[in-house]
Amino acid sequence: MTDLDLGREAYPIPGPPNSNLADILERVLDKGIVIAGDIKIDLLDIELLTIRLRLFVASVDTAKKAGIDWWETDPALSSRAARNSLLEENRELRERLEALESKTEETSDH
């Protein structure tokens, strides 16, 4: 039988320093991480379904640096985008109305 010497100091295992979850999350959000994968379902060499997944996890600032800002232009996610969407729709409707009114005036003049 082997006796353990519990009085000895344990030596740390060489490697990266311990990181807690907050440190890891901060690093991921600061640098960003991309996860990519494809799911493909075939039956008798006939492709039935292909799903391509791309996941980019980062902070808003990191995403903006990477040129990603879709949340600012999606009306479902941004009240400013919804407001801009309404302004654009109103502008288009006014242009169409002016075009119709000018055609109506042209036909009434003849």
From TrEMBL:
<dbReference type="Pfam" id="PF00741">
    <property type="entry name" value="Gas_vesicle"/>
</dbReference>
<dbReference type="GO" id="GO:0012506">
    <property type="term" value="C:vesicle membrane"/>
</dbReference>
<dbReference type="InterPro" id="IPR018493">
    <property type="entry name" value="GvpA-like_CS"/>
</dbReference>
<dbReference type="InterPro" id="IPR050530">
    <property type="entry name" value="GvpA"/>
</dbReference>
<feature type="coiled-coil region">
    <location>
        <begin position="83"/>
        <end position="110"/>
    </location>
</feature>
<dbReference type="GO" id="GO:0005198">
    <property type="term" value="F:structural molecule activity"/>
</dbReference>
<keyword id="KW-0304">Gas vesicle</keyword>
<keyword id="KW-0175">Coiled coil</keyword>
<protein>
    <submittedName>
        <fullName>Gas vesicle protein</fullName>
    </submittedName>
</protein>
<dbReference type="InterPro" id="IPR000638">
    <property type="entry name" value="Gas-vesicle_GvpA-like"/>
</dbReference>
<comment type="similarity">
    <text>Belongs to the gas vesicle GvpA family.</text>
</comment>
<dbReference type="GO" id="GO:0031411">
    <property type="term" value="C:gas vesicle"/>
</dbReference>
